[in-house]
Amino acid sequence: MAVNAAAEGQYQPLHPLREFWIYFRTNRGALAGMVVILVVCLLALFANVISPYSPIEQYPDCQLAPPIWQDRDPADFAQCVGHYYLGTDPAGRDMFSRLVFGARFSLLIGAIVVTICLAAGIGLGLLAGFFRGAIEVAIMRAMDMLLALPSLLLAIVIVTILGPSLINAMVAVAIVTLPNYVRLMRAAVLSEVNKDYVTASRVSGAGTLRLMFVTVLPNCLAPLIVQATLGFSSAILDAAALGFLGLGAQPPTPEWGSMLADARDYIDRAWWVVTLPGLAILITVLAFNLMGDGLRDALDPKLKH
Amino acid sequence: MLRFIVTRVGLVIPTFIGITLLTFAMIRLIPGDPIEMLAGEHGIDPARHAELLHQYGFDRPLLVQYAVYVGQVLQGNLGISLSTHAPVIRDFLQLIPATIELSLAAMLFAVLLGLPAGMLAATHRGRFLDHSVMGLSLTGYSMPIFWWGLLLILLFSVNLGWTPVSGRIDIAYDFDSVTGFMLIDSLLSGQDGAFTSALSHLILPAIVLGTIPLAVIARMTRSSLLEVLNEDYVRTARAKGLSPMRVLWVHALRNALIPVITVIGLQVGTLMGGAILTETIFSWPGIGRWLVESIARRDYPVLQTGVLLVASMVILVNLSVDLLYGLVNPRIRHVR
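Predict the joint structure of the above. Result:
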């Protein structure tokens, strides 16, 4: 199409989305990441259709049954043969079903944490970028303070105050990752706010709110999209760490991190209890990181040329 | 330079005040009666409760309470552990060498592997080696390290039987702690095999804790070296006919290392966070496990002081990195 346009002697710029896609699709890692994320999304959406068992129902006769391809003593698991693709956990729950439902929780954690962070980060970042002086100093100092503490330690403190639960773990993770969003947003605003198009808009009578949200914000989206994608991975990772320490999702919730909480006790007997939930975390987090890197390369004009 | 130091130190003070506010508020915000929490007693009768309330100063205005708390902190009165009945600071000082030893070993692992890996990737840009190094480092960066630890235990301890699962040294060895660093103490003890035992206990936790810094260092080395290799002075060096090795090691690497060293310094926070998970998995008797256990035991004075001390440590290390960086790179000093 672009060639035809050129042949006709008129220049037609590519649609930004199309241009983005051209750069993005050359990055095989990012494409692979996107495919994995789509698969995880489908698993999460159709978890109740895909999983053969309830993720929390216990089958006491089949505790720690190995995956179906593994040799097992028929006498031990006579009634379990052929069921439970990936084996069962120490409470006799189907690992496969728990892992599939776990996708729901991980994506939910990522989505909620990133949404909170984006909303608060955009707001605070715009404020700090537009109103230099006391407001900026107050916001940025507060963010520096949050950054000074090791994030996991701060998250632990917050969860201890709020009480251990999945919701509180998400709040804690959102608070400890917020500084990244605010700093990014402020930096983006500062680089835009003195450009001619903003001045033009101001001169033609646009109010501060309009300048903030209509004029400047859309031009700061690229770094925010990248940050949101990478934020998904760190949110999933941090929430899983809290779950592992017993401070996040509580049993019997099939959250990947909390599934590993007492896996150490079975490490010499049941490798599937130990390896599979972590593998699920790693694959999902890696996919988001791959896609985030790809997005950064495709959206950052400095790297494009 | 003096102005630079003063500004940087000045920036730390509000952060420190913020941390004390957090730890001060923490003990009052945690669900439950703070008096029972601090005294470690349950069902205290009203008379004793009032007495304790007065003793802890909880009947005074909040601002006064905070001032008293900061005063106590500055004097080094950091509370008494409810479980060991010892001053929290004493327990902290006893446990911190274990965490420092683990962190140093982890950093050593990360630097020794990360620098060469990043250099190889940069010099083989776009080729298979580059893609493998970058793929591996992104995997390392995405690693849930608590699971990575379990995986290594499963492979090296359970299946191969090469390394022990937990602790810092085999219980067969018994000697007094001189430095608190098990590797040094075991050497000083002169007992046969003590050092090997300490080393084999250290190796897996160090790998686990060092994995994310390793990934960060490899990526940073690569990108910083690539940038430097495009500089004019490198082209000049090549044009002069210097060998590629000399250009890389003597001309490029020196400048490429500046951001890498900063990143290494900034990993201290990551290490302390990672230590919480690593020490829990490997039953490593350090600060991280101590903090996690204090939550389970509801030993809140330990959590309060532990958070304060760890945060202060991280702030101080970051400050020193900042100052050192200013010392090494004069350009930084003059940027506001």
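The interface with chain A takes residues 11, 14-15, 18-19, 22, 26, 29-31, 135, 138-139, 141-144, 146-148, 150-151, 153-154, 158, 269-270, 272-274, 276-277, 280-281, 291-292, 295-296, 303, 307, 310-311, 314-315, 318 of chain B (CB under 8 Å).
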